[in-house]
Amino acid sequence: MADPTILGLESSCDDTAAAIVRGREILSSVVMGQSELHAAFGGVVPEIAARAHAEKLDLAVEQALEEAGLGTREVDAIAVTAGPGLIGGVLSGVMMAKGLASALGKPLIGVNHLAGHALTPRLTDGLCYPYLMLLVSGGHCQFLIVRGAEDFSRLGGTIDDAPGEAFDKTARLLGLPQPGGPQVEAAARGGEAARFAFPRPLLDREGCDMSFSGLKTALLRLRDRLVAEQGGLHPADVADICAGFQAAVRDVLVEKTGRALAAYLAERPEQPAFAIAGGVAANGAIRSGLESLCDRTGVRFTAPPLPLCTDNAAMIAYAGGELLGAGQVSDMTLAARPRWPLDRSAAPMLGSGRKGAKA
Ligand code: KG4
Ligand code: ZN
Fold first, then answer.
1. 207-216, pLDDT tens digit by residue?
2. Ligand 1 nearest atom to the CA of residue 309, by list position
3. Which of 22, 57, 154, 256 has its CA 20 to 30 A from that of 221?
4. For ligand 1, is residue 167 a contact (CB within 6 Å)?
């Protein structure tokens, strides 16, 4: 039987997205960002986000259908992010999806946003289960062994900030524009990482948990000391601070990934594979650190293209397709969930990122 055509909706944070996916083929993927609406507030304002989602979701769906060259009748099922995330936005998506599913008489599939990210390497690279995933962005940071569309083991994650958040704060402290990640990476290129010693938090502690908030404090102190001593920062200081900070994040991620890989490889997977996703996956230094770790351990390294690493609806449609194949459809009682851990047996996270706790 031909793969079903799935319309996916995503509205759990600050991107309103709709996409149409058939099997592993992305027929269209529309992402409407809201950063300009939140720029003046220094973070995502939930009420503004929810209103913008409610206004833009139908436009995103229309555009996704048009780009795919399909009418609503040609869609076989509606998949929607039902959590975790900012509840107002998630609700907008779930209500839109319920309306479409009932008007068209098609199945409704509630998808966990984190499962969407975690299944992306199957969409982009056809990875087989089980594989190890590091989800690392401004809102997420966790290691998952992905065993099935609804079967995840969380090996560890950040106990405070997400790395993307730390990159953004670093940029802010150094007077660089937002989003900070690409700016810090560019500045770090001309810098000397060894000039300033940054901490590598939690490396001395067993397991895969990470912490990034101490880096920010170290950076603040260093900046204030340099400003007091020299009356300001020279461009070379900014470059060296960025290089030192980025090297510290890379070292923590590489070391903890090594530990997560050891736990994963102990299960003797037939085709060992590691995938990174999230905005921070764009960072060349982090990416190449992880890629060479995988080379050394004989594990396939995968990093989906950036538009599919960051929030999008193609991942939700794809995950919805896997759930539909497994008979996991929802009904009109589908609820929007602000929290929805992928691994229900793992301890809850203490915190995770500027966009609110996600797991
Ligand atoms: O996945 P994403 O678009 O959104 C969520 O946070 O959910 O990730 C955005 C984050 C931002 O914090 C941004 O600074 C970071 O990813 N980022 C990077 C780079 N590009 C984006 N961090 C480090 N290096 C980069 N090149
Ligand atoms: Zn996300």
1. 999 999 999 9
2. 1
3. 256
4. yes
